[in-house]
């Protein structure tokens, strides 16, 4: 397998670029020897796709430009955004990690009354708190009052966040 094709397929596998982009990138780069790496091309492609609203949804992959005004809070560690368009809480956990969690409260499903402190999200509807760790997942509206919020795989590449809803 040619190295460039392998890189493209790896980027798709990692969720850095959507599978639909593979063909586009193949066409754009097949005879292009401009010194730009495949990763840089994928990054620039996603910057362009997210430029209008800060996000680009491709099937079950959501791409977010954290430098866009709509998502700029994510540049600060400890800050979160309740992205009600995509039913997720986005939390800037560390310098290189953003968590993507379901915004559906595991108790009775409220999605718009979240606050965050000391590693937990608290739903103000009935005052229950939920963690951001792995395991002990408390599913949406399941009448559970403890546990961790459902988490989706999220990868940060420079300022582009990829969320995989198929996880
Ligand atoms: S709906 Fe969130 S605590 Fe009850």
What value does the Rg take, in angstroms?
Answer: 18 Å
Name the bound molecules: FE2/S2 (inorganic) cluster
Instruction: Tell me the β content.
Output: 25-35%
What's the number of helices?
3
**Uncertain residue ranges:** 1-7, 22-31
Q: Looking at this structure, what is the CATH superfamily of the largest domain? A: Rieske [2Fe-2S] iron-sulphur domain
CATH C-level category of the largest domain: Mainly Beta
Instruction: State the shape.
Output: elongated
Query: How many structural domains does the protein architecture include?
Result: 2
Structural class: alpha+beta
Terminal CA distance reads 28 Å
* Average pLDDT for all residues: 87
CATH architecture of the largest domain, please? 3-layer Sandwich
Description:
- The protein is α+β, with helices and mostly antiparallel strands.
- The chain has two domains: 3-49, no CATH class; 64-164, Rieske [2Fe-2S] iron-sulphur domain (Rieske Iron-sulfur Protein, 3-layer Sandwich), CATH 2.102.10.10.
- Helices cover 21% and strands 32% of the residues.
- The strands form three sheets. A seven-stranded antiparallel sheet has the order 1-2-12-11-5-4-3. It has a three-stranded antiparallel sheet with strand order 6-7-8, with no helix packed on it. Strands 9-10 form a two-stranded parallel sheet.
- Helix 1 (3-14) runs antiparallel to helix 2 (19-29).
- The chain starts with a helix and ends with a strand.
- The relative contact order is 0.15.
- The structure holds FE2/S2 (inorganic) cluster.
- FE2/S2 (inorganic) cluster (FES) binds at residues 105, 107-108, 110, 123, 125-126, 128.
């Amino acid at each position: 397998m040619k190295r460039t094709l392998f890189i493209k397929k790896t980027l798709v596998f990692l969720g850095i670029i959507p599978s639909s982009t593979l063909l586009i990138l193949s066409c754009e780069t097949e005879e292009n020897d401009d010194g730009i790496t495949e990763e840089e091309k994928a990054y620039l492609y996603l910057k362009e796709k997210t430029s209008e609203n800060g996000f680009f949804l491709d099937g079950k992959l959501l791409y977010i430009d954290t430098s866009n005004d709509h998502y700029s809070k994510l540049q600060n560690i400890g800050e979160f955004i309740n992205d009600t368009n995509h039913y997720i809480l986005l939390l800037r956990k560390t310098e290189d990690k953003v968590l993507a969690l379901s915004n559906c409260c595991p108790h009775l499903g409220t999605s718009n009354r979240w606050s965050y402190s000391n590693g937990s999200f608290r739903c103000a509807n009935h005052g229950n708190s939920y963690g951001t760790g792995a395991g002990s997942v408390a599913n949406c509206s399941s009448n559970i009052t403890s546990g961790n919020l459902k988490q989706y795989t999220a990868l940060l590449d420079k300022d582009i966040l990829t969320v995989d809803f198929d996880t």
